[in-house]
Amino acid sequence: MTFRKSAKSRGKIGEKSQKKQFIRYLIKQYSLNLTPFDLHRKNYFMKSELLKLLPMLIHLFSCQSKEDNSSPQTKEGFIEVTGGKVWYRIVGAEKKGIPLLTLHGGPGAPHDYLEPLEALADERPVIFYDQLGCGHSERPSDTSLWTVERFVEELSQVRTALNLEKVHIMGQSWGTMVAVEYMLRKNPENVESLVLSGSYLSTGRWIADQQNWIAQMPQNVQDTIYKYEANGDFSSPSYQEAMMHFYSKHLCRLDPWPDCLNRAMEKMGFEVYLYMWGPSEFTMTGTLKNADLTEQLNQIKVPVLFTCGEFDEATPATTAFYQSKIAGAEMHVLKGASHSHQVEKPEEYVQVLRDFLKKTEKK
Does residue 248 carry a catalytic annotation? Predict the structure, then answer.
């Protein structure tokens, strides 16, 4: 495992020095005792206006300096896991709160689109990692690595390597299955809570929900999807266009998509996604076709928060069904949002998580 500091802190000393020098210059140049003669000088108006602005400028620079001083420390590096090395990033590494370990979706959709969670790093370390096969992590070609068991073991290895004794775990989409499987298979100690966003815990329910969403689409979109699902030509431009129409309603409703989501798509591990899932969110051809954890959810004993969007691929109805299986679990639906509700409604999402994490820590 290797560490290296983020470049965010570079140049801070120089920037602070320049700001102080500029403030001193303003004070020296414009904090003058004006005489009657100054009233006739052409630059009087400029001086008087700058004097009015001086307190604001000093406040602005002092606030910026405070922000610089409080910028979360960032560390990143690689961890050796079964099958290769995975890349990780810790934001707020110096914070004393219980860390939040995040698990991205896919399989194969790297961490970038979870970046709104960095807002929680003002109180606690927030840890991202790209699972093997995507993002900045290594991409082995051995398909025997693409199993639920290995991804659960990978999570355990990441936690051990980063010495996360107490931890909150947040999973999104496929990451929720990894999180719940980790709890069921490993029975780990000191997991303070689970946050399960856009939950994928049953392939059967997931596919049924996508079929219901497709049935609400224009007839020509439905016909295109069913045509190419039947003939297996998933690379057809017509199928891809229909797929993007679906995604614009249920994967991310923002137009254009935010940079963090685009970056995740660009670094996607499509080999893993195709092998374990399939050619699209609503077409299942992979090894996860029989995955279903619903009857084991009652074994989860830690506090759980479910979140979903109003138009989520993980529908509010299915999310409520999962919630009913875990005693004391909470649920929050973000109105007008979809599967990527953490980027569509970042302020609301972060506040809901912040409140939940604090509440669990008070118990």
Answer: no
pLDDT of res. 327: 97
Instruction: Identify the three-state secondary structure at position 225.
Output: helix
Task: Transcribe 153-199 into DSSP letters.
Answer: HHHHHHHHHTT-SSEEEEEETHHHHHHHHHHHHH--S-EEEEEEES-
70 flagged as catalytic: no
How many angstroms separate the CA atoms of 75 and 72, rounded? 10
Q: What is the pLDDT at residue 52?
A: 52
Residue-wise pLDDT for 295-351, tens only, equals 999 999 999 999 999 999 999 999 999 999 999 999 999 999 999 999 999 999 999
Q: Are 89 and 76 in contact (CB under 8 A)?
A: yes
Annotated catalytic residue 68: no
Candidates 173, 197, 202, 280; catalytic one:
173
Smallest Cα–Cα separation from 291: which of 280, 309, 278? 278
Which positions of the chain have pLDDT values less than 50?
Answer: 1-51, 57-68
Which residue among 112, 130, 209, 312 is the active-site one?
312
Q: How many residues does the chain have?
A: 363
Place of tokens 């039947």: 230
First-to-last alpha carbon distance for the chain, in angstroms, is: 34
Residues 6+ positions from 142 with CB-CB distance below 8 Å: 83
